[in-house]
Amino acid sequence: MLILVALLATADFSGSWDTTYGRMVLTQNGTEVTGYYSYGGISTIEGTVEPSGRLVFTYTEADAHGEGWFELADGRISGMWRPEGGASWAPWEGFLIGSNAGGKWLVVFEAEWEEFLDEPQYSFGWMLTEWFRRVPGVQVRHRWFHSAEDLRSLCTEASMLQGDLYLLIASHATVDGVSCREGTISLATLIECIRTVSGNARMIHFSACEIMGGRLPVLVERLSGDIFISGYDRSVDWSASGIIEIYYLNLMLEFGLEPERAAETVLASISFAGEKPGVFDDAAGFSWTGATEGGH
Predict the structure, then answer these.
(1) What is the 3 state secondary structure string of the chain?
(2) What is the pLDDT of residues 259-284, one digit of tens each?
(3) Which of 22, 41, 117, 118 has the highest count of CB atoms within 10 angstroms of its CB?
(4) Single pTM value for the model
């Protein structure tokens, strides 16, 4: 009995794994395990750790599903899988990736700002990519999203990055959600995306007007854990948000400030960032929630 208890105590499959079938992220709660992996898109996996320490699971891919098992030893998983109805088993192996393997990641998910073909193309993500290319230890990734499903998939991929994730979502927005080519992405979907990246995200910033003026901060506070979210509670000029965000990100990525301290420094250093207008700029309404001692 003591041996079985010891196995259960040490058989923890949580973490990011580099496997035969792509990067895989597992989360274990007691004996229950859920996760996803990047094979043919984003595929899901769920199962139970048996008293022997073996994880018995089912998997679901875009066009297939089946079953399998993993055993854990010395930072590696090894096991077998087969499709539903299949007679033969195939090996599935992987190794645990260190939690700080990737350093700092600045990830920008952006919707197109233009509405018509004759408009000049522009991108805040391009600007940030060039700006932070100069900062050692920071890797920048910029991707476009066109739908809620795009954003879900991108956030799942971001959750697999090893290191500290600084996520920026750039788009037109209202208090009801962010805009993209296929329409408004709801607050419920945004909360789903936030929950997905909560394991490795140091902060999430919405480079989007009005989003912090609605129910999003309240919904974030209801999430378990301490998820730092920032953005604007009103419409903000493109140049004003650009100045605020480059400075804000630089405080964290180059100078190493914690997100809350960086946000406080933005308000202290940029006169129009908060509630007071500047000489040429309206007040931006920069705010945040999810700080250790409550939001601003």
Answers:
(1) CHHHHHHHHHCCCCEEEEECCEEEEEEEECCEEEEEEECCCEEEEEEEECCCCCEEEEEECCCCEEEEEEEEECCEEEEEEEECCCCCCEEEEEEECCCCCCCEEEEEEECCCCCCCCCCCCCHHHHHHHHHHHCCCEEEEEEECCCHHHHHHHHHHHHCCCCEEEEEEECCEECCEEEECCEEEEHHHHHHHHHHHCCCEEEEEEECCCHHHCCHHHHHHHCCCCCCEEEECCCCCHHHHHHHHHHHHHHHHCCCCCHHHHHHHHHHHCCCCCCCCCCCCCCCCEEEECCCCCCC
(2) 999 999 999 999 999 999 999 889 99
(3) 22
(4) 0.79
Residue-level length of the chain: 296
Other CB atoms closer than 10 Å to residue 145's CB: what's the count? Answer: 24
Point out the residues of the chain with pLDDT beneath 70.
1-10, 98-102, 224-225, 291-296
104-289: CATH, from 3.40.50.1460, 3.20.20.140, 3.10.180.10, 3.30.70.1150: 3.40.50.1460
Instruction: Check if 2-96 and 104-289 are the same fold.
Output: no
CA end-to-end distance (rounded Å), the chain: 51
The label of the residue with tokens 């769920």 reads 46
> Taking the C-alpha atoms of 276, 173, 118 and 120 in order, what is their torsion angle to the nearest 10 degrees?
50
Of 36, 34, 8, the closest CA to residue 22 belongs to 36
Residue with tokens 């903000």: 236
* Structure confidence by residue, pLDDT tens digits, 14-25: 888 999 999 898
Question: Per-domain residue ranges for the chain?
Answer: 2-96, 104-289
